[in-house]
Backbone:
């Protein structure tokens, strides 16, 4: 429940609407109870059993004073208007009270609409913002489908639970308390019986709710598994078809669906138990009230002097008591809904309260340009208890092109990621211009860098917006110039809409070479002093590689470049080649120097049959 209360803070900005909703709900309850209290004098007139009091009551406010005042008002009205007209006025009053009750009830629901839609928007915005602040390491441990589930189904569940809570938290308690007050006025003995029986019913309902919460969390986790499977299957559809694995994948997916069905069936069975159980328990209470109240009337008929409950008051008691049962039933269902929502709230707060590993200092320094060098000083980095980088000492001077080579998984990409501060070092320091990068503002630091990766990361948007990513009010002429430098202008011009052509999800409407050239154009548009190229040409065919390599050569001119490459032919002209094996720098120097050493680089060179 703690997680659910934490989520409730998202309702705070809508406190005025919530207060208005509460006021309208209270008015709805007041009009509803007023309409039912009018039933008692109506019955008294019809059966001529109303108590006649001709003298206006005096004294302090009390239950007896209220009863006597109502009786005095009834007696005066009948004497002045006659029974028929008095009954007509009461009937009109009942109709008016019911109209006002339902009008205020509708307006109360109307005021919930902006709260409902606003909370869902604010929750998803908070989740999305927090995800953008979390480190890359967080997402390597989480499945995308699970995160998508938390932003969709979990938010929907919390919204439904929160709205049921906001709708019930004022209306039903006020309804119950007001009704009990009236019941006490009519018969304190009967009301005491009700107080004795309801806690027993609440205990039974509470136990069912606790089991519902446990099952609900399992259900939300399972739907996340299903979303993850869908995302993976769509992404890997080509491979699935190529290996004729449709039956195998479908079978695994059906197993996930089966698990979800079993969990949801259990949840629904418990959920459907809520209404009949609460109704059955309420009926038992009602029967006991009728039995006990009937006996009180029988006693009053035998001893009129000790009459504590008139027949019309007893019928009124039953009518008002019957109006307590729906809000109690509604509260029990709301309790179940809160238990379900609590499971989803826990999953949401796990993200909202996740620790941001890469943090910016409060007094972080600004950096507008790169002037001297990048230095690794005894840098260590560990990921999930595995040492990825060990005692890295390396200097990259301004204007140099540094190539990182070595076996896969050796730590090359990790080293580049540390420069962009996607992760923080676990030991030593990484400095730019003599200052630890952890002392700089993140936006300023990353503003110095342009990154081109092996898998071109593009967005389902126009070519123009992909090239101008992160730039406010981009100049179309500069976008076109960047595309020309990246050898992309020619193929862009062939599209009917040119730079406004939508490239589809992940750029699937483009070839691999075209996507990579757009990534390079994006880096050119940013015009960064530091460039990181992570296997930028390894996945391309010969023709595409030639075009991309030419674009990269233009991009690298007059910039400090860190190039990660498997193809040694692409980095022979680098100012310095750094060989990284098992997280350690084992060799560094120019192409010719490393060949003369006849060490690790020489072996890699020989394996690729280079001369």
Residues:
């Amino acid at each position: 429940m703690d997680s659910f209360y934490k989520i409730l803070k998202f309702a705070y900005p809508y406190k005025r609407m919530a207060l208005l909703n509460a006021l309208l709900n209270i008015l709805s309850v007041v009009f509803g109870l007023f309409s039912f209290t009018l039933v008692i004098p109506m019955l008294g007139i019809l059966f001529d059993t109303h108590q006649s009091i001709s003298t206006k009551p005096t004294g302090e406010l009390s239950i007896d004073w209220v009863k006597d005042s109502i009786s005095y008002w009834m007696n005066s009205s009948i004497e002045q208007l006659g029974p028929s007209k008095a009954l007509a006025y009461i009937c009109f009053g009942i109709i008016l009270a019911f109209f006002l009750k339902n009008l205020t009830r509708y307006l109360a629901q109307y005021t919930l609409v902006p709260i409902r839609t606003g909370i869902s928007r604010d929750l998803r915005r908070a989740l999305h913002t927090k995800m953008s602040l979390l480190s890359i390491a967080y997402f390597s441990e989480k499945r995308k489908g699970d995160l998508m589930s938390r932003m969709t189904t979990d938010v929907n569940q919390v919204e439904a639970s929160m709205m049921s809570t906001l709708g019930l938290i004022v209306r039903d308690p006020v309804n119950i308390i007001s009704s009990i007050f009236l019941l006490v006025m009519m018969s304190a003995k009967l009301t005491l019986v009700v107080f004795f029986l309801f806690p027993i019913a609440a205990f039974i309902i509470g136990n069912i709710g606790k089991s519902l919460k446990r099952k609900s969390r399992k259900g939300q986790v399972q739907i996340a598994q299903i979303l993850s499977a869908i995302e993976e299957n769509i992404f890997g559809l080509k491979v699935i078809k190529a290996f004729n694995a449709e039956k195998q994948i479908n079978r695994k997916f059906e197993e996930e669906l089966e698990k979800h069905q079993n969990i949801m069936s259990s949840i629904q069975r418990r959920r459907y138990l809520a209404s009949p159980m609460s109704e059955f328990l309420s009926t038992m209470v009602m029967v006991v009230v009728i039995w006990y109240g009937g006996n009180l009337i029988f006693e009053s008929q035998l001893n009129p002097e000790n009459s504590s409950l008139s027949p019309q008051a007893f019928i009124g008691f039953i009518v008002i008591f019957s109006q307590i049962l729906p809000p109690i039933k509604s509260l029990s269902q709301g309790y179940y809904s809160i238990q379900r929502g609590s499971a989803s709230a826990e999953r949401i707060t796990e993200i909202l309260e996740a620790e941001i590993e890469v943090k910016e200092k409060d007094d972080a320094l600004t950096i507008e340009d790169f002037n001297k060098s990048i230095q690794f000083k005894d840098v260590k980095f560990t990921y999930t208890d595995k040492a990825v980088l060990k005692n890295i000492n390396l200097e990259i001077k301004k204007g140099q092109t540094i190539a990182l080579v070595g076996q896969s998984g050796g730590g090359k990409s990790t080293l580049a990621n540390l420069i962009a501060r996607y992760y923080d070092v676990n030991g030593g320091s990484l400095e730019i211009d003599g200052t630890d990068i952890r002392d700089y503002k993140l936006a300023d630091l990353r503003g110095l860098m342009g990154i081109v990766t092996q898998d071109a990361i593009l967005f389902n948007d126009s070519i123009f917006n992909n090239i101008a990513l992160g730039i406010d009010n981009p100049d179309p002429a500069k976008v076109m110039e960047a595309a020309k430098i990246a050898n992309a202008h020619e193929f862009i011009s062939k599209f009917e809409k040119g730079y406004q052509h939508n490239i589809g999800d992940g750029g699937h409407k483009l070839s691999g070479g075209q996507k990579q050239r757009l990534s390079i154009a994006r880096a050119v548009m940013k015009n960064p002093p530091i460039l990181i190229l992570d296997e930028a040409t390894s996945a391309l065919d010969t023709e595409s590689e030639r075009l991309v390599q030419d674009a990269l050569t233009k991009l690298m001119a007059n910039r400090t470049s860190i190039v990660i490459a498997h193809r040694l032919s692409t980095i022979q002209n680098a100012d310095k080649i750094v060989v990284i094996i098992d997280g350690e720098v084992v060799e560094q120097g120019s192409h010719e120097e490393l060949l003369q050493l006849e060490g690790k680089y020489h072996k890699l060179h020989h394996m690729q049959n280079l001369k």
